[in-house]
Amino acid sequence: MALLHRFRSLPGGVAPKSGRLTFWHSLTLSCVLIAVSAFAWAQEAKPKFSVYSSQGAYFGEYATQVQAEAAIKSIPGPVGAEDIYQYVDTIKEAHVSESGEMAVTYWMGAEKAKDEDWAYDTLDVTGLPTENAAIEEILRQVNARAPQCGAVATLTPTGDWIASTGPYPEYDRGMEHQVRVYQVDAPYDNCEGTYAFSSSVLKRRRTQCPEKYTDWLISEQACANKDFMATIKVAANQCDADVGSSSGLVGNPCDVKTGEKFQIERDFDLGWIDFSRYYHSGIATASSDFGPGWSHSHGLHLAIQVSSLGLIEGNGYAVPFRKIGENYEATNGSGERITADGNTWKLHRSDAIYTFDAKGRLFSRMTDDGAGLLYAYDSEGRLSKITSLQGRSVDLRYADGANKDLIASVSSAGVLLSAYTYDQGRLKSVTFADGGMRVYHYEDLRFSRHLTGITSENGQRFSTYAYDDVGRAVSSQHIGGADGVALAYSSAGTIVTDALGGKSTYAMTNAGGQAPKISAITNGAGTVSYTYYDQSVDYRRRLSTMTDRRGIQTKHTYSETTENGINVSVHTVQEALGHPQQRTITTATATGSNKVLSIQLDGRKTTYTRNARLQPVLLTITSQEGQKRELAYTYCEASDVATSGGGCPILGYLKSIDGPRTDIDDRTTYNYYPIDAAGCETGTGACLYRKGDLKQTINARGQIRENLSYDAAGRVLSAVDENGVLTDYSYHPRGWLASTTVHGATSGQNRVTTLEYWPTGLVKRITQPDGSYATFVYDQAQRLTDVTDTLGNTLHYVLDDAGNRLEEQTKDAQGTLKRSLSRIYNQLGQLKTQADAAANPTDYAYDANGNLRLITDAFGRNTLQEHDPLGRLARTLQDVDGIKAETNVGYDTQDRPLQVKDPKRLDTRYTYNGFGDTLKLTSPDTGVTSYTYDSAGNRATQTDARGITSTYGYDALNRVLSISYPTTAFNVSYTYDVTQSVCASGETFTVGRLAKLQDGSGTTQYCYNRFGEVVRKVQTVNGKVLVLRYDYTPGGRLRSMVYPDGTTIDYVRNAQGQTTEVGVTAQGGSRQRLLSGATYYPFGPSAGWTYGNGRTLARMYDQDYRPQSIQDSRTGGLEIGFGFDPVGDLTCRLPAIQCQLKLEVCG
């Protein structure tokens, strides 16, 4: 009866035994509600977190989310449940309002009931698993009363199960009890006859929740409590979508607008899917997936409320939307739009359409190229599988116990891609397929969830982050201070000190809204300023002007119009506003689909025509003269998909691209595998390809490249090129390319290139097919510092904290310095001085926008450069204090030179058509040359200053077929793809290559091996046939040549592939050495060799790799010395001894 009494008292009351609050529908908490906005604007980057109870009572403002969460626990509960808010510690959902306010709602979480399945109770025994078990228990007890009679008692139900309590859909409660009555026939003690009495069995489920104050809710299908929740409100993190303005992200990066540390971690990229994680130190919008602060690239979802709708991005940023009619439009200026489609929502982005279900969960993503991803969720609403249209998938597995909403691993086709561990709900580590592990640190005791650093896969600390007393990032750096930034916050803005000590001040404005925007960036060069349309006139607060450090302004205007009945948003950008060079770019975007319709740059317009799936079917470029060039795209349609065995099995896949040629068919087509390979469905054997994998690419000449097989992750394993040559690919466990094998005629002739990686994923070594290799070494900040070749020669870089190369040192295998170069950079990261090995400097100075303004050589001679308002080099004045050689360049609005005036003040002029092709070149040297073009932009004719016109012909691949002249003897023709009769077996791999050239002097024919190398060249001149043959090493380097008279020249190479010896063998004769013993400077020129007659030639170079001397060992032999002035000009070329001793007379 006590059990029944609890439910008869609905609604209200506290269950004293369980301590679980059942229903609270009317409750007034005794607290003072203070009407204070959580978003009072201040220019200092200092977010405020305000706490509210589920009844809307205000409980203070806090500097960090963690502090606000602690404040939730201090909210007093009602009488009998004073500690109830102690259990409100899990993020349920996050919403973002149109104004940019983020509301993060907390609750007690959702857990399975202890008795999720029916449990059966008798009068004496509880928790039996089945009805039969309960019956057996009753019979056992009855028979035990008269054991002398044996097991003779029986039990018969008198009716069906009758609900005694629950469920209560009107209260969203799903707990329930049912009773069934049985007649029991029990034996008398003397075992003579039976007597009857009634007994009952109670079955119950969802009555025992693991957490205090929770009940099993029908709406959640779990134990939860939606009566006692709390909300934290703060200005949402928004990533500014304005093109031309600053994002405010600096360094590793940190956000100067909010003080957040932001981190991107890529776990894997399979080509068809990329999986990355994102960390925000400031605002956590979920407790699930990877724990507070972390999100992932496929976790985007809609935040749906009755009066608003927002988007929480996979990268953790929020996008507010405003309701416009029946649709919603993003307030960040991106043009993104959300529309209702039955029970789903569609997000229209410029590159894809995302579909969400009624709960706001991502259901699918379809991109313009027809590729798509489908998303599935488990019974608890967690993302469990992501599947491509080809049927490949990645599976997400979740942790157990308290971390059940945290992702434990991601795998594909049974192969583990990444596994995750947690500590106190925080992401602790990720382990990859190769066993490499990245570890995440949270060492700031003040802020337990603030990421303070990362240890990379090599076991070394890679990065360190620090925060001030209100949780804002004040330092972010890689090991040793590399790439570091320090941030200081004040009411004047955020001051950022970079790795070189340079300071930049970021000032902010709110433009009438909540989220801050950058209004100015000031550094040692000056100020870049931004203005925005106020929210009162443009709810998107879009960029209005940008003024650079030279005072040159770019103006942005926006308008709405219609084109062909379609609502269109027009964005006009005027660069170099008010200057003669002013340039106007206008972009028209369909408001409903957020797809670009046209882009106009002054007189040139590019337009896009789209199909019903919003894929581009026609790209048209129209010149200011009204001429058009078009690219047409076709896609797999329903009729193609319905064709059994066809090459177009998935709706929307690209089928063909028809080029701009109007005189010839220049179409490229694509075929796809129509079904899965054997073994894919059963999982037995190799699954060589999936339905929809690209099978063939067929160019306009009908030449086919075919992918023969793919691995389980969707990467190409084997492909055959147009010549039938097979290439195999293998991959590192983490998906990086590991080797490429181009097959020879036999396996011994295969050419294999291999790549090795450091645990961090940086390339460690590349080995060529001949065994030569280059090894790459990095510092602890993972920046390249050394390159070593097969012979042990080393190229070493000395880096500053910003990664600039201060020194380059080239050393031989013994460590002897052979070449050096040094640089100095200013605090803006600009090259200030570059010096050669002798410390002769060249200095550089820049204008306020960073354009190179002044070059001063080692003699102190200045070269002045001036740039026009669009940043293009307009004037060069060489030797400012001397000859003052001036060159001027004028441009059109598409950055093409119109006029070049040289130091003699002679003009070279250019005229263009609307497509950017040169129509006329007027030069004092060559006179007037004019050009015409075909519909693809290929040069059709060229008429020189003599009036002689050459005419060009092209094949469907736009390769030159012929050049014709008025004098036909000068005509030239080219033949491709066709193997010539002079080519021997094994020399017939001609497709895609020049096979024959013919002009008035004769013909030249080319034969190729399977690796694309010319192995035979046959020249026929005046009826005489001359044959040259070539042979190559496995590394593709020339090994020998056979001349027309049969003479063979051979080349001997060292381990690095450099020629060390050259021999000659006359036909029928013995080999003679032409030279031997050739040596080389590391990563440089040859140091000398020995001729076949024993004479040696030594080539001495200085540490700038300029020749100092060339000396023959023989008395009276060649001996030349070179001298250079401090700017590198040759000043002396005399016998070596004179140059070395008497440079002063050589200048």
Please give the structural blueprint.
Elements: H1 2-8, E1 49-53, E2 58-62, H2 65-73, E3 90-96, E4 101-107, E5 119-121, H3 131-145, E6 154-157, E7 162-165, E8 176-187, E9 194-205, E10 215-217, E11 222-224, E12 230-235, E13 249-250, E14 254-255, E15 262-269, E16 274-280, E17 294-296, E18 301-304, E19 309-312, E20 318-324, E21 327-330, E22 337-341, E23 344-348, E24 352-356, E25 362-367, E26 372-377, E27 383-388, E28 393-398, E29 407-412, E30 415-423, E31 426-432, E32 437-441, E33 453-455, E34 461-467, E35 473-478, E36 485-490, E37 493-497, E38 503-509, E39 517-523, E40 526-532, E41 543-547, E42 553-563, E43 566-575, E44 583-590, E45 596-601, E46 604-610, E47 616-622, E48 628-635, H4 638-642, E49 654-658, E50 667-672, E51 694-698, E52 704-710, E53 716-720, E54 726-731, E55 737-742, E56 751-757, E57 763-767, E58 773-778, E59 784-789, E60 794-799, E61 805-811, E62 817-825, E63 831-835, E64 841-846, E65 852-856, E66 862-867, E67 873-878, E68 885-891, E69 897-901, E70 907-912, E71 918-923, E72 927-933, E73 939-943, E74 949-954, E75 960-964, E76 972-976, ...
Antiparallel strand pairs: 1-2, 1-12, 3-4, 4-12, 5-9, 6-8, 7-8, 8-9, 10-11, 13-14, 15-16, 16-17, 18-19, 19-20, 20-21, 21-22, 22-23, 23-24, 24-25, 25-26, 26-27, 27-28, 28-29, 29-30, 30-31, 31-32, 32-33, 33-34, 34-35, 35-36, 36-37, 37-38, 38-39, 39-40, 40-41, 41-42, 42-43, 43-44, 44-45, 45-46, ...
